[in-house]
Amino acid sequence: MAYDFGTIEPKWQKVWEESGAFHVERGGDKPKFYCLEMFPYPSGALHMGHLRNYSIGDLMARFLRMNGYNVLYPMGFDAFGLPAENAALKFGVQPAEWTWKNIEHMTGQLKKMGCSYDWRRRVETCNPDYYRWTQWLFLQFFKKGLAYRKEAPVNWCESCKTVLANEQVVDGGHCWRCGTAVTKRNLEQWFLRITDYAQELLDCLDSLEGWPERVRMMQRNWIGRSEGVRLSFAIDGTDLTMEAFTTRIDTIFGVTFVALAAENPLVRQLAAVSPKGDEMLAFAEKVMRQNEIERCAAGGEKEGFDTGFFAVSPVDGRKIPIWIANYILMDYGTGAIMGVPAHDQRDFEFARKYQLDVVPVIRPVDGPIPDGSSMDRAFEDEGIQCNSGQFDGLPTREAISKMALWFEENRWGKREVNYRLRDWLISRQRYWGAPIPVVYCDCCGIVPVPEDELPVKLPMDVTVLEGGGSPLPGASHWVNTSCPKCGGPARRETDTMDTFICSSWYFLRYTSPSSKDAPFDFDDVSYWMPVDQYIGGIEHACLHLIYARFFTKVCSDLGLLPKDLREPFTNLLTQGMVIKDGSKMSKSKGNVVDPDEIIRRYGADTARLFILFAAPPEKDLDWSDKGVEGAHRFLSRVFRLVEENLEGLMSAPSPMDVDSIGDKALRDVKRQIHRTIDKVTRDISKERQFNTAVASLMELCNSLQSLKPSSPEGWSVLREGVESLVLCLAPFTPHVCEELWSMLGKNGLVSLCGWPKADPKALEMEDVTVVFQENGKVREQLKVPAGLSKDQLAERVLSDPAVAKRLEGKEILKVIAVPDKLVNVVVKP
Ligand code: ANZ
Ligand code: ZN
């Protein structure tokens, strides 16, 4: 009988499913462990990235289960989103139908992978039972003032025909989904007040020690806290003032122009009283048509317009020209800056182009004051204050703090903290999403849908439009409704929610997936949260992983979660990509390997083993057909090892103490068994080096194969080795291990067995006698632990007191070490 995965895998999947082997409930004596993977979008089929993500997650879930934890390991689908609408157009099916078909298909694929999910807990964000609570949560945000509507210039993707949140504009101004360059539009939209949590989102990052530093850094930069001064300038000849935000108040004496963003309301106000008004407005409008990349790219073309007005410097009454500049953005600080060409490169480029003065007010610590007219770039480093009155001579840091206080004392400005983080724009002009549960009434304005009328269900009898727009505004039978407050005619909100809202709380729903009167049960969520191990892609560093943290904090403040639960994910593992021939697998490159095909040809166990063995989880994984075959051959070998020795194994005596084994070779194998258990345990739990764990299991298998026992002692060692091998492999390749476990006559599932424990006595190395030689002559005999490397052996022998004494005062030319045998030292004669 050969290794027949085609029979073995479905057989054990059925046993697991029918026995409810992986069902969990809250409570009991075991410690809890919540293992979570980022749930997939039901695009139609799993890809290799999924397979990698879930192979890692299932390994960890199974390992912890065997180690005595009560493991929550759920799966679901992030099921709203644009691809369903595109598919609807392409194939003429309803988005709902397409999505549900994919969900069922992908669930089948996940089952074929052998993942140990508690399938009773599956959630689908497009299920009305789920999005009812997404809407309910929105209403709680709304009541708290954390959801609001405002008109603002927002990011628009012309290809997706919808607005986008700032986090969804990536790679310097492109749509995260389709890569189209994003433009700005002025629209009234719904926002969530994530900025209220900016400081806490930043502060808590320090405590997330189980997260990769890279992700924490990306979030810190995204939140972008900066401390500075907001100062105001009177505008000469008007009663207007302008405000600017600067992080470098120490450069105030070097200001040679100020500049407004094109969108700054002052532009209109000044245009109204200026002879050049029309020209000004035309320039502003031209800038507004540029996209963000054109406006802010470092080294991008700076464009400006001289308004002819002057701002009055608060510190010395100097009159400073007011410009409009394309590189000033409206949604940061005050939408206006003080321009300091000598110390800010963008201002420098602007000043050179428009022949504005360059006045240095900081000099290098060890150099003279730069000459403004001949500088070839701004001096942006810290240094010593100059040309700044009573502040001359101060180092930059001190100047910044002293001058900020000086501004406050004179009421010229106020210290202020600014964040780059913006409120989260959540309206989408799309059909396939959770409807925002509000109506618009002519009398009452914005009226939330009463909670007991949720969910506001998406209408199913609409046709997705050819041009790509949402069919909701045109669905008059759905849009027209009555006002819950006054009963008069009202219109439903036709925007749906960003799908990132749906995925901001799914991990809470898993704890109590069928809760009928709350999004999740307080006791369940208190028991299971936080997630102990989260596994997913780095691409979510500044998307899902910020949003989910925000939602957790708000839910905690709303009393839906324990007060002290401020962070959802204790440990985060960001897996690397799967690449083939050096580049990421993608349809466009034509280098895609289909998981289904691999599972059909080699079985799920082989696919999982290859993925876990081929690279450490955080590194990119290079797909190799040879590697897959190697993994398959290894599993066949393990299978044969049990099968061919079955008779002897079944009658073998139970494991023996290492000291009572007479045969040295058998003792060595016994020690190797326990060293392997020890290493695999550490590799999985501490180092997360699953690949090296597999490598040591392969070595163990080799040793066991060459054992060929001829005595009860030998059979005992082989049996212990085989059982340990099967137990240690079980989280990696669960199906074949269940089969081998039952062949070995064991009752019960290997998946639910206890993890093997390394015997400390068998971990100790045996001693060997080595000789110490001087210029080839034997001088000493020493007992050292067996198995030391060359370096370890040399170090050990040279530090022996007797050896050290012999070498005293001699010049060592060379040290030669032969493990377990000798150390020869060549000394100058
Ligand atoms: C004067 C100055 C002198 C500046 C100097 C820098 C260096 P961070 O650190 O990112 O917070 N700034 C302020 N608002 C802006 C806006 N709406 N659009 C474009 N630039 C803006 O950046 C703060 C600095 O960015 C501010 O400090 C301001 O330039 C500029 F030697 O003011 B600074
Ligand atoms: Zn797009």
UniProtKB/TrEMBL annotation:
Catalytic activity: tRNA(Leu) + L-leucine + ATP = L-leucyl-tRNA(Leu) + AMP + diphosphate
Domain Aminoacyl-tRNA synthetase class Ia: residue ranges: 421-624
GO annotation, cellular component aspect: cytosol
Name of the top EC class for this enzyme: ligase
Residues in Methionyl/Leucyl tRNA synthetase domain copies: 39-180
Motif ('HIGH' region): 40-50
SUPFAM superfamilies xrefs: Anticodon-binding domain of a subclass of class I aminoacyl-tRNA synthetases (SSF47323), Nucleotidylyl transferase (SSF52374), ValRS/IleRS/LeuRS editing domain (SSF50677)
E.C. no: 6.1.1.4
UniProt KW keywords: Aminoacyl-tRNA synthetase, ATP-binding, Cytoplasm, Ligase, Nucleotide-binding, Protein biosynthesis
PROSITE patterns: AA_TRNA_LIGASE_I
Binding site for ATP: 587
Localization terms from the record: Cytoplasm
Motif 'KMSKS' region boundaries: 584-588
Molecular function GO labels: aminoacyl-tRNA deacylase activity; ATP binding; leucine-tRNA ligase activity
Official protein name in the record: Leucine--tRNA ligase
The species this protein was found in: Thermanaerovibrio acidaminovorans (strain ATCC 49978 / DSM 6589 / Su883) (Selenomonas acidaminovorans)
Gene: leuS
